[in-house]
Each structure stands twice: as structure tokens, then as C-alpha cells.
Amino acid sequence: VDACRGRFLQVHICINENKLRLVSTRPPQLQARVVEAEAWRRTRQRAGRKRGTMPPIQYSEKYFDDVYEYRHVVLPPEVAKLLPKGRLLSEAEWRGMGVQQSRGWVHYAIHRPEPHIMLFRRPLNYQQQNANPNINK
């Protein structure tokens, strides 16, 4: 287990011609997410902009209801045109596009009139609950 980076690896030991070799692989579902995020990063770079020259991604302040905290993220046009039509993005996908947020945020809805605005939410007190895992015990 590669605990430092939060990735789980399967380790295989291969013995060939009296030589021991360790081969690590990711589980297929994690490998697919890593490949997906890397593809998004490359696509974003190919949008014709170098790092630092693209208009910044804009982040709203947080707003709340009784269950969740919310925020929305406004993507610049160069990034917004890379969004897939009609589906929500996984965390690996939106991070691969350059959206930077703390843990726990989920892309939960698409605002059809303005698809370049990504809507995120996470449970209230998410950071407090995850900072102290013994809080519910």
C-alpha cells in the first residue's frame, strides 16, 4: 500500500532466472481514474495556453442549508469547452481540469443555462468530522 500518496497498489513478486522483481499495479478502477485525470490535464494543456496565462478559475464563497455546504466554481471558456455534456465529473476529473478545493466536495448538479458553472456540495462539518475520526465513537 502506498499510503503516502493515498493510492492503493497491488504488489506482485516475479521470480525469473533466480532474480526477484517487484511489480506494482493499481486496481483497474483506480488506474482508470488516474488515466482519466491525466487525459484531462493533457487536454487542458492542449487548449493552447501555458500555465499562468489562462484566465483564473473563480471560486464562490461557501453557502449553507441544514444538511450541506455549497460552493460553485466558474470555469474560463477554454476549460469549460472541455466539459463532457450531460454528466457529472468525478473528483479525479475536476481536479484534472485544474479545480482546486479541499477534500469532500462532490460535483452534484449541472446548471443547464450556464454549464461552465460547476456546482459542488459536501456535508456540513465535513472537515471537523474527518479531522478527528473518533468524534462519533
UniProtKB/TrEMBL annotation:
The keyword Cell division applies. Keywords: Cell cycle, Cell division. Gene3D superfamilies: Cyclin-dependent kinase, regulatory subunit (3.30.170.10). GO terms for cellular component: cytoplasm. GO terms for molecular function: cyclin-dependent protein serine/threonine kinase regulator activity. Transmembrane segments: none annotated. GO terms for biological process: cell division. Belongs to the CKS family. This is Cyclin-dependent kinases regulatory subunit.
